[in-house]
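Section handout 9: paired folding examples.
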Amino acid sequence: MNSGAQNLREPEFSVLSGRRAFLRANFRSAVGFGILVKGRSRLWANSFFETGHPEILKSWEIGLSVLKPSSAELEKGLRIHREALVFDAYGFAPRAALDGDSMRHALEAGLSEAEIADLREEMSMTRWATNPREAREFDEAMRVSGVTCIFQNAGEEGSDPLRLLKRLARFTHATDIAGARCSKLTSADRVVLAKREDRRGLMFTTNGVPLKQRWESKRDEVRDIRLFGELGVRMMHLTYNRRNPIGDGAGEPGNGGLSEFGRFVVEEMNRLGLVVDVAHSGWRTSLEAARASSRPIVASHTSIGGVYTHFRGKPDEVIRAICDTDGYIGICCIPRFLGGNGDIADFASHIAYGVKTFGASRIAIGTDVAHSSQHTKEESSKVPKRPVASVNTDRWEHLWPEDKFIPRPHAERSLAWTNWPLFTVAMVQKGMRESDIHAVLGGNVLRVLRANPFTLSS
């Protein structure tokens, strides 16, 4: 199964005829809509996932055209998804559209590139909590997805504490304002309670370990890890794609392993009860981190080398070491990491291979994608276009070896974040047991969190 060659299978696209009639009639709600796949008409009648959102419906259409589930598979998958606690092992809350007028005024006022970048990110990460239209968009995407909690990227790539703190501050601010709509969750028990009460939440993770970078002593360097835990962070990347003092990132050609200092960082995270994440770490660093850890570790958003080899995936040997800690790997929704067509069918193949090879208790789903507001294009059109040269596209942390994979045109849309219910339908099609599907959807993330309880005790 391990191949870099692309499978030229092309899904047979058709029309959600009932969807189009629904939109033309402008009904505010519907019992269901017809699905035409390979000429067979089926009725989906499930008010729990019902939506009139045109972009979400289009993604459903594409995903269903790839999967072509039977009526029984679709019905069973939607039922399981509705009942399950769904925990995105690594992802992004639905992104709000920017405020085009405010952004235009900022540009006219002469804000620097760094200030504009900060403002753009702040708007996308907080306007769902402050703007009524974006709040409705956010709530609809969360409801249709069926997700209870997202392990939210809340710390920009790197080890600079202030850099990590910016994104964490934004999501803390947003969840403070949103309250019960979408709250900050800090333990497995609170996630379970949110599911029981039909609430949504975010749990925070950072794309790096905060290091003081004064290099006076090992203990001094790691003191901010505890502080970030107190601020609600529950998981941290050891590295991003580049080498750092902890170990090699996935993009480094040398594939050096975990440093002596890196072992100390793993030990400190184990002591505090913060989940070690090696998703962006090199293969050897990931392997050695697993062997060094006394608690379960994860690769929260990756793919499986036994299905398709990619530098951001993990070879079976590395996955086995992670599994041996009682951890898991999260299968992501990035087409170029999946191989084949890079679509929802290939995504499901990674899950099925992982369950068969390593066990259902070792696989989760870490999408690494986000729903973007349908108002993005409208708001962006209000902002004057800037010269391409003014936008920094060569950021230090984005080390990326040559990657010639070209996904099929439908791939990304078939893996849209709001297609979570179809991920479950795909697992049903693979013949997975209900208990195993529940484990993949969220049970495994809860188990690892319980094995890494954050504590300030010495």
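Moving on to protein 2 of 2.
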Amino acid sequence: MPEADTRDDKSFHEDIPSPEQGFFLKGSGAYDWGMKNRLARIFRPDSGRTVMLAIDHGYFQGPTTGLERVDLNIVPIAPYADALMLTRGILRSTIPATFRGGVVMRASGGPSILKDLSNERIAVDIEDAARMNVHAVAVQVFVGGEYETQSIENLTRLVDAGFRYGIPVLGVTAVGKELTRDARYLGLATRICAELGAQVVKTYYVDEGFEKVTAGCPVPIVMAGGKKLPELEALDMAYRAVQEGAAGVDMGRNIFQSESPAAMVRAVAKVVHEGARPAEAHELYRELSVPAVHA
């Protein structure tokens, strides 16, 4: 048996109050420790922002250009991102278990690009997400789409399951051909996701009114990269998004379809975490894109 500690000179620092354990992310102060810890694996505590690399496109459109070989194209650049957004199939088959970044797993799916994409179902059991130790699950929400109510039910069911296991839910606002991409629509869609429990919301950037979209959403918004743009334009979009309230970006094609994906993800990180202006970040991209000359 260990000896009893009978010393009377213990120091409790009575003159120093215990600190309040606040949290750095918008709207996240009331979550349990496990959920906060997972969010802190996706968002950097020092900046409050994230650079997520989205590589989940194959769940509805197959081998997307730039993602033909995730092991060759993505695994080498993954350490430059704060988190990966991907499917459980790619996570299990291709991403090394030694990966230290955040993992956001696509949890909805069903139709391919050949069908109505809004007809999604929950495609992952929350227990499997916990088994793989992911840091969030993502679900598409089709506000205004043919299967709007169904997709919202997918979100709410995952939110309920996520609270049981301490796993955050990323609500992804879908924008189809029939839906208007403007601040009014995105404000509606993002607010619905947050009101129904999503801990983070992913949405598109718009030139006018984006700051109202982020201000009206009580949880962090990350900007979707969207279609492939020239590198400087993509960096400018990321810069404007974070300046107008986004808590980071979730880019896919603008990184993995770049001429130099490794350079692009680092340039995006300089914008998101250091506040670099687009021209400065683009110069970094150009410098990192130059092949090394060996003597």
